[in-house]
Amino acid sequence: MMNKQLQMIPVLPSNDIERDIKWYQQSVGFKYAFGDKHYCGLTRDNLEIHLQLHRGTEEDPMLDGSVIKIFVPDLKPYMDEFLKRGTITAEKIKENTAWGTNEFGFYDLNNNSIFFVQDVH
Cα(48)–Cα(46) distance, rounded to whole angstroms? Predict the structure, then answer.
């Protein structure tokens, strides 16, 4: 077994990198880390996501979006923040789900689904 710490960074499709950088900054609190009009990295706390340009053509399809789940120890600060930002409404918050979580989710401008999840087992 390797003792090396592993890291996974989701790469989400985008059809407008510049527009999406602004949206992630305003709506989700991520900060621009690097990139250009075709590929970029965004960070928030210890989280990192990348956006990759797809033109939505037959040769370079957007597909139907991706899903990421960000697990946090306490959902409330995130819930309060995203309610204040207007990113979610109270109806999006699901507490004590059948699978043992509190969570909320929303879509970015490319139909990628982003969930913040607290395990309550």
Answer: 7
Which fold is adopted by the domain 11-119?
2,3-Dihydroxybiphenyl 1,2-Dioxygenase; domain 1 (3.10.180)
Distance CA 12, CA 39 (A): 10
User: Max CA-CA distance within the chain?
Assistant: 44
Amino acid in the structure at residue 119: D
CA-to-CA dists, residue 103 to 8, 65, 67, 68, 79, angstroms: 21, 20, 14, 12, 9
Q: What are phi and psi of 27, to 5 degrees?
A: -95, -25
φ, ψ (nearest 5 deg) of residue 73: -75, -25
Would you say the pTM of this structure is higher than 0.90? no
pLDDT tens digits, one per residue of 22-71: 999 999 999 999 999 999 999 999 999 999 998 878 777 777 778 899 99
Name residues whose C-beta falls within 8 Å of residue 76's C-beta, 6 or more positions apart in sequence: none
